[in-house]
Amino acid sequence: MMSPTIAQHPIKPRRVWLDTDIMIGMKDETPREVDDAIALIMALDQPDKIELVGISTITYASYAYEVTRKLLTWYNKTGKVIPVYRGSDTANDAGTENEATRALANALRAEKMPILAIGPVTNIATVVKNHPELVSQIEEVVVCAGRTPGLPFKPGLETLSVGDYNFEMDPESFRILFDAGLNIVLSGYECSIYTFLGKTDVDFLNNTNESDKWLYDQLRPWQQFNEKLFGVDGFVPWDTTPLGYLTHPDYFRYYNDIPVRINVGPNDAGPGNKPYLEVSYDYTDTNWRATYAYKTLPGFEEIVIDSMKRASKSQ
Ligand SMILES: [Ca+2]
């Protein structure tokens, strides 16, 4: 009897550099964004798919450093030390070296790899600007930013517009990356917006385990704050979709090799004008190109929740 033979090639995890503006739990007037933390926990939960070579922080760099180390203590089950480096505090000083840019440059000298950049891209731009010889060592940069022309960013009940945060914090650094001709993957608002974590999705964290409880105590206020702002009790874990491009690419739909431009126009989320990072096959006057994720397919949200449950159970 014939039986299909399935070759058992062990697939090596992809070695990736993570640059993050993680700010979960930062003491402030309002709760702070939690999505970087969820992306980090998910990455640590999938050592078969992704291996973090190093982590650099961007904005609130010292807080980000401390909270990343805390999360690594709880969730890094790989047995490998993942070094963490403090990057730019301001996200407006592309070209100024820091601990993170020096470490990233060294890592790129040693090996070619992709960069998962889930905050403003200042650290990456510094490496590209100061070390153009390393550009060919960057396989791709996966970022959470960009939009199709005219797409409003209106989460929840669509009463309030928000900005394209990572891009608007430091448009100049995006310009540096596109000018360098890097492979850039834009996985931002449009493909993330229907992935939604509500109260019942995180209830399992409300227990006596130290790490679960800490996480729950940051996620729950963030959900409630989102209800105040956008009318719905829950949040979109934005940064999990750029991670998903690396771990579960089949769950997204992409516009490949699409032209990219920075267009300046009236600010849809405040006064004055602002730059927009936009993609369209109609743009014929630009050399910038990207892979643009425009849609998440059903099932990705389940992957996010399952991953968090596994991370929790393995305590
Ligand atoms: Ca982020």
UniProtKB/TrEMBL annotation:
Query: In what residue span(s) does the Inosine/uridine-preferring nucleoside hydrolase domain sit?
Result: 16-264
> Where does the signal sequence lie?
none
Q: Which InterPro entries match?
A: Inosine/uridine_hydrolase_dom, IUNH, Ribo_hydro-like
* Keyword terms: Glycosidase, Hydrolase
Q: Which GO terms describe its molecular function?
A: hydrolase activity
PANTHER family reported for this sequence:
INOSINE-URIDINE PREFERRING NUCLEOSIDE HYDROLASE, URIDINE NUCLEOSIDASE
User: Per its record, how is this protein called by name?
Assistant: Pyrimidine-specific ribonucleoside hydrolase
Its source organism is Spirosoma utsteinense
